[in-house]
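Hey all, quick one. A colleague (J.T.) asked me to put the adenosine-5'-triphosphate job into the tracker so the inputs and the structure tokens live in one place instead of scattered across chat threads. No bug as far as I know, just bookkeeping. Sequence used:
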Amino acid sequence: MTGWGLLRPVRAQLLVLRRPTVLGSLLGLLPALAVIATTIAFLTADRGAEPPARGERPALLLSALALPDGMTAGFAATSSLLGMLVLVLFLATTAGEHSRGTLRVLLTREPRRLRLLGGQVLAVLLVTWAALALALGASVVAAFVAAGLRDVPTEAWTSADALAAAGGDYLRAAGAASGYGLLGAAIGTLVRSVPVGLGIGLAWFGPFEHLLEEAWSGARRWFPGLLMESVAAGGSAASGLARSAAVGGAVVGVMALVAAIDLQRRDVLS
Amino acid sequence: MTSEPVVQTDRLTKAYGGRTVVDALDLSLPAGVVAGFVGPNGAGKSTTLRMLLGLVRPTSGTGRVLGHDLSRPQDYLPDVGALIEAPAFYPGLSGRANLRVLATLGGYPAARVDACLERVSLADRADDAYKTYSLGMKRRLGIAARSCPHRGCSCSTRPTNGLDPQGIRDMRGLLRSLADGGPTVLVSSHLLGEVQQACDWLVMVESGRLVWSGHTADLLTGSEVVLGCEHSRDLPRLEELAARQGLQVRPVRDRLHAVPPSGSALTDAVLARLNRTASDAGITLIELRRESSTLEEQYGALLADSVAGSLR
Ligand SMILES: Nc1ncnc2c1ncn2[C@@H]1O[C@H](COP(=O)(O)OP(=O)(O)OP(=O)(O)O)[C@@H](O)[C@H]1O
């Protein structure tokens, strides 16, 4: 089979995603959230005189928003909220194939199960990355508009530093989203049921991790959801960016491997 | 028609937990037939089809489809049009988009999608969402999806389920036209009537075991002779004499039902020889009557035999 054969599952899944509900919710919702977050950041920022000291939350001061990374402050704020949305999207995609029964039909066209699943996940990742890029663009436009409204100087935003900051924000957001997405895909593949998978996913990454975060100091260093949040935020006190990315990536990798082995071995019965 | 069987299995077995649902099945389907896979509910038909399609891993035994081993479905599935049970599609996508997804995945030209939709008379509703289709239209889309690759071999369960009479006639024609093009079509059903008219090859299974396999015509023309003798104590002797003439005999109450071996007919000469042999042995026949049985009865009788055989 040629290299194009490997891309068939990706192209097929992109056709599946080409629905108003899916594209609308992703390509519309993410940019909308980024615009709202940007607007709120600018409208509620204080008119302080001094730039913030290190470690303080810079988004609260208008003078901080004038710094090179101020342009994408709104985008950065949203990206840490997107994890759950992306998790649900990937989980519904993979588990839905089982519960709908479409997987067995697709497998008669591409019997190599890992190729099929890999292609599907890659297609959803591509759409997610595109939605994040749109969200970044939308928040930049919103930032310039909001800056005009509140007289925030924007000279620093057109510098190379600003470009690097925006690129960094995008990569961290895309990395965290990919981690959440792969976790969702792994849960969906293992559980094979959308409601059960959602129950597990939402319970674990919602209340459970955050409750244990208070009780156990290791939570921030080892729990995948908290590590992804740390990646999106550029690192936390408990786990820096590089460590969060490495450990989080390893946890995601193990989950993906377990799911892949399970898919390869189990009978398709639905 | 090639001589190599399109589907061949050798002691194919599937057990769930301790329960064997497909039991050492030996199948052999020639090319170019519409084959009907019949058996009561839970006989293991779907499980067997799923093993042939690489969805379910056999517990033991081997099989080949189009000459390729079951463990490498990627080698033969591109040439197999397959659909199991109720069709499964993305409800939010149109019929056309659903077929496009499958065509893209299988690497077929998109132009074939339109041809397939025409073929099942769905072209005018092709752009409506699948979830808005009637049951019959859903089945038609299933057929369209299956006939897209249209080479090799095809599998389906209950093809006419939910179709109106016109749809059922269309379906039979479609199955026939698919097989005329060379491929073998395998349909599965527990409704014998449905299979009887659409299929020219039958595979009967019961409790995961093969009961009978061969041309439908053999089963249909396999009219039988009913024998009765004056004293019931002579029945075993008469059974033995008939069996010695190559007939398959089974006692039914105080009568014997005998069928000629598949391929040979129940001619007058056969009946005359039966009568003469019995008389030579001192058995007086009180009944010697041809009876052409329906497939339904044959089916029942074969299943009864198979159950009796497993109890013996
Ligand atoms: N995943 C499973 N776990 C346990 N038992 C199973 C499983 N799948 C099927 N079976 C059992 O295997 C037997 C055969 O099932 P199968 O679906 O192959 O029958 P069938 O001949 O297709 O029946 P029907 O005509 O009702 O569709 C049934 O007794 C069923 O309960």
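Adding what we noticed when we looked at it: Chain A has one domain: 3-30+76-140+160-265. The interface with chain B takes residues 5, 8-9, 11-12, 15-16, 18-19, 21, 100-102, 104-112, 116, 265, 267-269 of chain A (CB under 8 Å).
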